[in-house]
């Protein structure tokens, strides 16, 4: 085993392979899928140029530190270790917290699976305190609901052959989002869905991810615009997207969420809540800063 450091696209590629190894080693271990970090790279971040460590064996990465600057003053750090890889988890955690304290100009958070008592202890031993919580649900693709079409006046579209049409996520993610997504190894334009009105307005969008190596699908993100809420658009997008994932051979689908409204939507299309995570960070008096906007 040896240690290396990486930034930018090289770090993303190593992180993708690392999280795939985590999932192949355990069906539910860890907080994130490889597709999560690919989604986070949809726009440039201040953390992109920060070198972060990875530990590799003959088959690739077995541990690493993921840094994500959601805003200049609010960062996220994730110590990631493949279960059973023989890595000193405490050492990876120490490096992760050190990097976060060194590079985040404001505050930072570390998400921890509440069932991972060893990680919870490492967070508290590092002087971090518990903050917000979110939930994760899983769905067996074989148990998916039938596809629900959007209501009258709306139509479902994907990004196949639509490179000349502005991406539905441009308003929140910048003009370059389509190009950046297209360059990601797990992105599939047929799983990049939106619901539009008959006159062409974007009413909602979702992006689903197919990780062929792990057989896992991910839902991230889902958005219905306020003017079109409570019309069944989220359900229509999700049932169609999950059906497309199943057609590609996905066995299980995962989603994470932080509100009861989102949880109700996901439970309504068949997801079963399986775990919760707590976001740990420095005490509020050390130093000041906004919480990451995830």
Automatic annotation (TrEMBL):
Record key words, sorted: Acyltransferase, Transferase
This protein's record includes keyword Transferase: yes
Domain of life from the UniProt record: Bacteria
Domain N-acetyltransferase, chain residue ranges per copy: 152-294
Protein name, per record: N-acetyltransferase domain-containing protein
Source species: Nocardioides marinquilinus
């Amino acid at each position: 085993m040896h240690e290396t450091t990486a930034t930018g696209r090289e770090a993303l590629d190593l992180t993708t392979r690392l999280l795939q190894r985590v999932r192949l080693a355990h069906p539910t271990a860890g907080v994130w899928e490889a597709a999560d970090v690919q989604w986070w790279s949809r726009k440039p971040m201040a953390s992109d140029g920060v070198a972060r460590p990875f530990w590799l064996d003959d088959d690739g990465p077995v541990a690493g530190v993921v840094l994500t600057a959601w805003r200049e003053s609010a960062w996220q750090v994730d110590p990631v270790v493949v279960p059973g890889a023989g890595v000193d988890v405490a050492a990876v955690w120490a490096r992760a917290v050190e990097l976060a304290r060194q590079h985040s100009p404001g505050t930072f958070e570390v998400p921890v699976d509440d069932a991972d008592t060893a990680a919870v202890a490492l967070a508290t031993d590092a002087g971090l305190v518990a903050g917000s919580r979110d939930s994760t649900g899983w769905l067996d693709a074989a148990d998916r609901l039938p596809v629900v079409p959007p209501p009258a006046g709306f139509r479902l579209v994907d990004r196949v052959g639509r490179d000349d049409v502005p991406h539905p996520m441009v308003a929140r993610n910048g003009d370059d989002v389509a190009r950046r997504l297209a360059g990601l190894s797990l992105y599939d334009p047929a799983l990049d869905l939106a619901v539009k009105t008959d006159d062409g307005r974007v009413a909602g969008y979702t992006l689903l991810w197919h990780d062929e190596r792990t057989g896992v699908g991910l839902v991230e993100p889902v958005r219905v615009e306020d003017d079109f809420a409570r019309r069944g658009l989220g359900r229509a997008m999700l049932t169609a997207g999950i059906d497309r994932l199943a057609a590609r051979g996905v066995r299980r689908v995962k989603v994470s969420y932080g509100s009861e409204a989102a949880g109700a939507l996901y439970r309504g299309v068949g997801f079963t809540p399986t775990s919760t995570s707590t976001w740990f960070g420095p005490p509020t008096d050390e130093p000041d800063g906004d919480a990451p906007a995830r």
